[in-house]
Specification:
- The structure holds 2 protein chains of 2 kinds.
- Chain A has one domain: Response regulator (Rossmann fold), CATH 3.40.50.2300.
- Chain A contains 5 helices and 5 strands; from the N terminus they run βαβαβαβαβα.
- In chain A, strands 2-1-3-4-5 form a 5-stranded parallel β-sheet, with helices on both faces.
- Chain A is α/β, with parallel strands linked by helices.
- In chain A, β4, α4 and β5 form a beta-alpha-beta unit.
- The mean pLDDT of chain A is 86.
- In chain B, α7 packs antiparallel against α8 and α9 crosses α10.
- Chain B has 3 domains: 280 residues, PAS domain (Beta-Lactamase), CATH 3.30.450; 109 residues, no CATH class; 165 residues, Heat Shock Protein 90 (2-Layer Sandwich), CATH 3.30.565.
- In chain B, a hairpin with a 3-residue loop joins β16 and β17.
- The N terminus of chain B is likely disordered.
- In chain B, 50% of the residues lie in helices and 20% in strands.
- Chain B has a 6-stranded mixed β-sheet, covered by helices on one side. A 5-stranded antiparallel β-sheet of chain B has the order 3-2-6-5-4, sandwiched between helices. In chain B, strands 7-10-9-8 form a 4-stranded antiparallel β-sheet.
- The chains are: A alpha/beta, B alpha+beta.
């Protein structure tokens, strides 16, 4: 069975690195990208099952990044990560093809749950 | 470093292409606004009422004056005409009367009973016949060709046998081509005023005459009778102006009339003054005698109708003018009142809108704050999760104290960040209580730019060119609203720049004003939008990114500080906002007194 591969895209270094560390500890193969542009660069070389994408980022925001991801790798499931004021962006992301959104700050379990569901959906789609 | 300044660009641009606007906005001082509105409408009302009253009443008065003049003239003429008509008809009546008297006498002369030697009895019969025709006849006499009265009937028997050949009437008749004569009133032999009607007749080349005298009293009564009920005083004068009637009043023989008709025109109407009373007199010559009939009327009587009409006209003019003025006054007052109430309501609405925009900006702030706090919270939660993972042997992580300290310091950093945000919020809360302090505008601009660089200016390549005056005087103001003004204009400047550009910030002091100019090399503002940019909720930022409150709030704050925001914008080249802040000496004093 393939290992679940996750990409965390967030401009908050501390947050991104910590989440990557915790996912890796749970045997989930994960990486971080500090911006939308960097995430797209990584995606060119590697495939991921699930991408966790922060909505509010400088340069290229989460919605814009989502559009590019869906063009580049349409089979990849994306979970939007939103702050309190940007629930509408989370919903907009779902309209654009994101799997779900998670409100910040979220306990790791909730994020793991959502990642798991997204992964299941992707596998179901492929098999 | 490129310094971007519209003032250089403006030199090359034709004046009509320059777009600029100035905003004066004063929601803070609503009472003053209300007074201003009321004063404005009071002025408007006074101007309208004055204008309308003048506009209505002036032509009215001019027309009335014109008609009044014409009316007076016409009525004067008609009064003259009617008096002339009265005189004419009276003259005709008198002529008829006199002709009848002549005919009475003439008939006697030619009656078949008449002889050249009448007896006393015959004479008495003649007199009786004459008296039968008219009771004005006093006596009757017959003259032989020598002018001696050879027969007489009447009360003055002494006159029988008197020689009349030297009397003026006798000589006149003798030489006259007419065969009759009516004399003026004279005293004659009997020494009593009377006038004579005489007829001559030639028999065998000898001239005989018959004479009858008439009582002037009776004639006067006749005259009174014909002028009765016409409010006209009629009298007769001879060519010398001597009265030819015996009037118990003034016009008594042998008095002279105050009015002598002009010799040039025998008939006419004139005005003359008698005993301080203006009189209107119509004169017309009597055909049978060289007398003139005078019909007199006081002007006040002749023009009584006109005076009454004038009075009515004047009163109705005054009443109508007052009525019109009152209608104009009340109508204008009501209209202006309504307009004023609407303006006041509009003012209130504007104030409410400004208040609402403040509330909305607080909501926006709250949403932003929540987002900013959630980020460090997310880090704290994630990091504490990591530490828990480290302490769980299942995950086989490095759980050395050094590793845990490292994670804890991440938590500390995030917590400090959150604390910083809440601190800022507290500062904002404090600044709601007006706290005017000495502000260094340069330093405030620096703080605002530094905080904007963290978020708003971060995604773009924007160069900030500072050109700050080093010796800028300090002003007395609340720092937080000023920060908000600068921040709002700077955010707009950065939003106007697509990706790469320059924002230049210039400060300078001119007399008692500090000028802060924020110029961007962005898209510029289309001229048609320029008048609206300070309106609350006006925004051109799409996608829910702008609330349209930034400039509105900035304008109201600057106005509150007694300043003005000036805008210069050239579409495609950039915009320049200049904030003029007064260095308020009064405020300085107040602060110093407060400090003591």
């Amino acid at each position: 069975m393939d290992t679940l591969r996750v990409l965390i895209v967030d401009d908050e270094d501390d947050f991104r690195e910590t989440i990557v560390k915790r996912l890796n500890a749970r045997k989930i193969q994960s990486e971080g990208a500090a911006s939308g542009v960097k995430a797209l660069e990584v995606l060119k070389d590697k495939d991921f099952d699930v991408i966790v994408l922060d909505v509010k980022m400088p340069d290229m925001d989460g919605i814009e990044t989502l559009r590019h991801i869906k063009k580049l790798k349409p089979e990849t499931e994306v979970i939007m990560l939103t702050g309190h004021a940007s629930v509408e962006f989370g919903l907009k992301g779902m309209q654009l093809g994101a799997f779900d959104y998670v409100m910040k700050p979220a306990p790791l379990n909730e994020l793991l749950d959502t990642i798991g569901q997204a992964y299941n959906k992707k596998r179901g789609l492929i098999h | 470093m490129r310094v971007w300044d519209t003032s250089h660009l403006l030199d090359d641009i034709p004046a009509h292409k320059q777009a600029s606007a100035e905003h004066v906005y004063d929601p803070a001082d609503s009472q003053a606004n209300l007074y201003r509105i009321r004063f404005h409408f009071k002025q408007l009302q006074a101007r309208l009422i004055l204008g309308l009253v003048l506009g209505f009443l002036l032509p009215n008065a001019l027309l009335s004056a014109y008609f009044h003049f014409q009316f007076t003239h016409t009525l004067k003429e008609s009064a003259k005409l009617s008096l002339a008509a009265v005189a004419e008809s009276q003259k005709n009546t008198i002529d008829l009367y006199l002709q009848e008297r002549v005919v009475n006498l003439y008939n006697l002369f030619h009656s078949k009973d008449f002889s050249l030697n009448p007896t006393q009895e015959q004479m008495d019969t003649l007199l009786a016949n004459l008296k039968h025709f008219n009771d004005g006849f006093v006596d009757v006499g017959f003259f032989d060709p020598k002018g001696v009265q050879i027969a007489y009937a009447g009360p003055f028997h002494a006159l029988l046998g008197m020689d009349y050949s030297h009397e003026s009437w006798y000589r006149n008749l003798l030489e006259d081509h007419r065969n009759y004569l009516i004399s003026d009133i004279y005293l004659g032999f009997r020494k009593i005023p009377h006038f004579t009607i005489a007829i001559k007749q030639v028999f065998d080349n000898q001239t005989y005459m018959m004479r009858a005298s008439l009582d002037p009293d009776k004639f006067y009564i006749f005259l009174r009778a014909i002028s009765q009920g016409k409010e006209v005083e009629s009298t007769l004068i001879n060519h010398e102006g001597i009265y030819q009637v015996v009037d118990p009043g003034r016009s008594q023989f042998p008095n002279r009339s105050d009015f002598i008709p002009p010799t040039a025109s025998p008939a006419g109407v004139e005005e003359f003054e008698r005993d301080d009373q203006k009189m209107l007199v119509a004169f017309t010559p009597i055909k049978e005698t060289p007398w003139t009939l005078l019909a007199m009327q006081p002007v006040s009587v002749a023009q009584a109708g006109m005076i009454k009409a004038r009075l009515v006209l004047t009163i109705s003019l005054v009443v109508i003018s007052l009525l019109l003025s009152a209608i104009i006054f009340f109508t204008i007052k009501r209209l202006v009142d309504r307009a004023r109430r609407m303006a006041e309501k509009g003012q209130q609405l504007q104030e409410m809108l400004a208040h609402a925009s403040k509330l909305a900006s607080i909501g926006e702030l709250a949403a932003g704050v929540a987002h900013e706090i959630n980020n460090p919270l997310a880090i704290i939660m994630a990091t504490s999760g990591v530490i828990r993972d480290m302490l769980n042997p299942e995950f086989e992580l490095d759980h050395s104290p050094e590793a845990i300290y490292k994670e804890l310091s991440v938590i500390d950093t995030a917590a400090n960040r959150a604390k910083g945000i809440t601190r800022k919020l507290q500062d904002m809360g404090k600044s709601r209580v007006p706290s005017v302090v000495e502000c260094d505008v340069n330093a405030l601009l620096g703080e605002v730019v530094a905080s904007l660089k963290k978020v708003e200016l971060k995604p773009k390549h924007i160069e900030i060119a500072n050109n700050l005056a080093s010796d800028l005087p300090r002003i007395f103001a609340e720092p937080e609203p000023l920060r908000q003004v600068f921040a709002n204009i700077l955010i707009n400047a950065s939003d106007a720049i697509d990706d790469k550009g320059t924002i230049s910030i210039t400060t300078e002091a001119k007399e008692d004003t500090i000028l802060v100019t924020i110029t961007d090399s962005g898209r510029g503002i289309p001229p048609e939008n320029l008048p609206r940019i300070f309106n609350p909720f006006f925004t051109t930022k799409g996608g829910g990114r702008g609330t349209g409150l930034g400039l509105s709030i900035a304008a109201s704050i600057v106005k509150y500080l007694g300043g003005v925001i000036r805008v210069n914008s050239i579409p495609g080249t950039g915009s320049s906002f200049t904030i003029l802040l007064p260095i308020n000496a009064q405020a300085q004093k107040t602060i110093k007194q407060h400090d003591k």
